[in-house]
Amino acid sequence: MEKSRELSYTELKNSCTPKDLAFNTTEELKPLVGIIGQERAVRALDFGLAVKIKGYNIYMAGPSGTGKTTYAKTSAERIAATEPVPLDWCYVYNFQNPRSPLAIGLAAGLGRQFRDDMSELVQLIQEELQKAFRTDDYEQQKSELLRSVDAKRDKLMEKMSKVAENHDFQVKTTNSGIYFMPVVEGKPVGEEEYDDLTEECKSEIERNSQIVQEKAGLIMREIRDLDKESKKKVENLDYKIGMFAIGDHVAEVQERYQEYEKVIAYINAVKEDVLDNISQFFEDEDEGEDSLSALLPMLSKKQPEDETQKYKVNLIIDNSETKGAPVVTTFNPTYYNLVGEVEYDNEYGNLTTDFMKIKSGLFHQANGGYLIVQAQDILSCPQAWESLRRVIKTKEINMDAVREQIGTVVAPSLKPEPIPANIKVIMIGSNYYYDVLSQYDEEFDKLFKIKADFDYEMPRDSVNMGKLAQFIKGFVENEKTLDFDVSAVCAVIEYSSRIAERQNKLSTRFNHLAEILGEAATWAKMEDAKAVTAKHIQKTIYEKEQRLRLYEEKLEEMLDEDVIMIDVEGKEIGQINGLAVLDMGSYAFGNPTRITATTYIGKSGIVNIEKEARMSGQTHDKGVQIITGYLGQTYAQKFPLSLSCRVCFEQNYNGIDGDSASSTELYCILSSLAELPIRQDLAVTGSVNQKGEIQAIGGVTWKIEGFFDLCKKRGLTGKQGVIIPVSNIRDLVLKDEVVEAVKQGQFHIYPISTIDEGISLLMEQEAGKKDENGMFPAESVHGKVWKKLKSFHDFADNSEEA
Q1: Which is nearest to 521 in space by CA: 18, 513, 34, 70?
Q2: For residue 605, pLDDT beyond 60
Q3: Which long-range contacts (CB under 8 A, 24 or more apart) does 16-19 make?
């Protein structure tokens, strides 16, 4: 029997030595600029930032911790610094429709100036109007105007009195108006006296009353017209005086904003409203409150409102201090945080609002620049995705109030004028969220036409190793830690390959590396070291694992106490050591597990006990079906299989998935059929196809270390080891303890490419090859399996005939 290939200790990890790096400590290096190992994503992002066409927003996809957000912000800020500062935006009162405040955009810095100019203008208007309307000249003009009107009114009243007198009536004037009292024999007649009059006299009074009423109505119409004329003349006088007082000030402000037609129109509207409501600039005399109003505040006279509030400017976006285009990053994109909000005041249970309570959102702040959001955050906040896609599609920011839409608030609402939007959105998330959005929103691909895919790994070459050292230097400067010597950098590079699970790759999940760097620097500081060394990196990794390995320790205790039964010596028929990986999220470890198989005559084929118990995943079920295909291809070319087989992962109560144990299960079945024992000092992992070829699996490093730890606890015999697929050799990044044991011949790792190689190792017999007649050697493993299956078939046939 040929000796199986065994891996050398040099093949178990890709060691990094100081000679691979051209420095002694990171003090000699410059910090990294940019990002490492993401050339494809960098090109996509740079192109997306350069395109200024609608729909070219960017989705940055990839695993967390690869630096997507940091790089997106850095790149956007670099581009934004070369771009123009966007407009200031403010809301002002709409005199035509107060419920729809007007939006005004001004060049950066002019928004604040406009707000201050309007505030100053209103103050000047108040002062100038009060001066103008308190002058003797105004009072004289107004008195003359009113005197002429009063004279005309007196003549009309005199005319009315004569009409009444000619018809035996007297005019009486009270606060409630004018009425006529009949006169009989030169004396006014009251209600009591009227009843004592004769019917003839009463009839005469009625006739005269109708005549007087008709003539008096005509005269009263003339008096009302005279009052309207008087009021109009006073208003014209006030307008003239007011215009004279404020006209120059208004014109001066308008001159500053000649380029903005909307501002000119607004200031004209302010001027007209001021002149139409001049009385609001004069204080009314306070009226006394009655006792009841004094006791009940809600019934008392309200505080006088600021009548000049509507002339203020609500500056919601002030870019006076902004350099270049804005770059806004958010991790809380609620609807109101995005689109802004109209706030309310509660006055004795009534909600009130006005245009000064409009608050800007992230869309307003990022307008003219870049908005960086997380896909998970956007999809977690109600209405957030809808608001984002609406802004991208319509290119305007519309402050619709969700509260009113869903009917949770009954209050007067505002409908602010939409603001034009020009925002480049950079959304960051996993490929899962990209697929979800693509599937459930048919317009997603139109809205986000650029996808920047971030890889979870990069080639382990001299360039990337050097950049990783520069990344460590950048960490040192940012966090103000000790420098790292070359041995520490080598240890970090090896750790990066370990979490990438590939000898020729480095992980791009820099947040994991940053955690190691920070903790190692802390350990070095606690030891008063001059620099961080490989010892501190190794201590950090060890301590980090110790904090997370509680569950692993509990399993180890059960293995030590034989609660979970695993053999690491001897031989058994139909029993084999499989290997699984338990992933706890932030920590993964290998776990040996016993797999058993029983075979007997029947027609049920291979029954996966885990599947029957609903503890098996789809991929594992597929692996079992592949085993059936292999058995049929190999042994059932001349007779059908008459086999019943039960395969079980013993003491497994949490379920199983994946096909990495399919070869292991096949060895176990073959052992049961051939009645040949399997070495228990070997553990097996590997997927098999229907042709008996061994395929690569995941987590090979953790699986080997899991079985090694168990063997070490029970005592290394020098014969123990693990069988792995040959295609997984490059994935080995084993810890130094395992490497040393292999070097000393205390532990062995066998790479195989076919089931036959594994059979020879596990059962210590030749697997056997078919001859020209399609038959296996009788004493080979395949020959014994074929013989057993043939006997099953013959017995089943005889039973059916009987």
Answers
A1: 513
A2: yes
A3: 16/465, 16/490, 16/491, 16/493, 16/494, 17/490, 18/486, 18/487, 18/490
- DSSP-assigned letter for residue 32: P
Record the tokens describing residue 452, joined without a space.
């920047």
Residue 176 pLDDT > 80, yes or no?
Answer: no
Work out the number of other CB atoms within 10 angstroms of the CB of residue 746. Answer: 18
Residue 135, H or E segment: none
Mean pLDDT (whole number) for 573-602? 91
Q: What is the mean pLDDT of residues 423-429?
A: 96
Q: Is the per-residue pLDDT at 787 higher than 90?
A: yes
DSSP state of 352: E
pTM of the model: 0.80
Please state the φ and ψ torsions of residue 426, each to the nearest 5 degrees.
-115, 110
- Maximum CA extent, the chain: 157
Give the pLDDT confidence score for residue 600 in this predicted structure.
Answer: 92
Could you tell me which residues come within 8 angstroms of residue 240 by beta carbon, excluding any fewer than 6 positions away? none
Token pair of 195 as six digits: 């009843």
Name residues whose C-beta falls within 8 Å of residue 344's C-beta, 6 or more positions apart in sequence.
Answer: 351, 352, 353, 357, 409, 411
What dihedral angle (degrees, nearest 10) is formed by the CA atoms of 120, 126, 130, 131?
10
Q: Which two tokens stand for residue 48?
A: 């997306």
Q: Which helix (H) or strand (E) holds 374?
A: strand 370-374
Q: Determine the pLDDT at residue 292.
A: 47
Distance CA 198, CA 196 (A): 7
Spatial distance between the Cα atoms of 188 and 180, rounded to a whole number of angstroms: 10
